[in-house]
Amino acid sequence: MKKTSTRLADGRELLYYDSRDDVVRDEADTRPLDPVSTASEIRRDPLLGDSVAIASHRQGRTYHPPADACPLCPSREGRHGEIPAADYDVAVFENRFPSLAGESGRCEVVCFTPDHDASFADLTEEQAALVLEAWTDRTAELAELPQVKQVFCFENRGAEIGVTLGHPHGQIYGYPFTTPRTALMLRSLAEHRERTGGRNLFDDIVDRELVDRVRIVLEGEHWVAFVPYAAHWPYEVHLYPRRRVPDLRALDEAARTEFPQVYLELLRRFDRIFEDAQSPTPYISAWHQAPFTEFPEGVGRDEFALHLELFTIRRTSGKLKFLAGSESGMSVFINDVPPEAAARRLREVASS
Hints:
Strand content: 15-25%
Largest sheet: 11 strands, antiparallel
Radius of gyration: 20 Å
Helix content: 10-25%
Number of helices: 6
């Protein structure tokens, strides 16, 4: 992999990740851009104890542009976007409309491919491996920023999710705090450790699924994917490396090599869940990595388990799972699809 760092016309960082070492990235961004002006602010909720990002400047962000005006496509004569090059493998740049900026963190956009009409599931294993390298590299670099306490790599796919740009891309957030979801996991981890005399909660969850078998979706030598026992979403899969590690940086070479094969198969199965659907399955794919600080007493960072959660808000063809009163008002999810049935369906749509 070759990594090239450059700057866009307004000063934001742009990074190219190329599979070939002989690629030269010297294209300049010639757009007449004004300096980025953000008003990101973190406010803490005194009742719930969590944090909310206030980012009013995002109201003016690009919204469903036509394909020939996509800012994530390679630039060409007469049309210049966020990536000045006429072609690229993987590109990462600072978001022009970030939810978090400056002392409030950092937001980046990850373009998986120059092909506007593709999806992550269309990538080759080599291309997916390069994306994994980019995620890992960004995690390592953002970890060095003093204001970043946790790194979150994720992809939103589909208009139903709220995606405003159709080009296949994801995002990376560098939060200035430990996220509420992770804080809950750490609390459960500490309580389980105390209750069981030192056992690891993540290990026990994976072991339980491997014993029960009914919710296992896919297994590799180094990865295992299953629908969780108490799945929140209609179709939800958790993907764990068999060797527990706290973040992407700690994956060994064997796990990195196998990941593209396993992950691409999961994504392709998701697109086959609903046979008569009029559009590809909308989904959120989210990497959970250990934060860098703020661990419960007695719990070390290496006790957290890196894992990926992949889920869709589509509950059946033509129908979405909306977060209504119980979910939005009280954070109590009601799932219409039994996890065992979801796992069975995801096994049925295997590639072979």
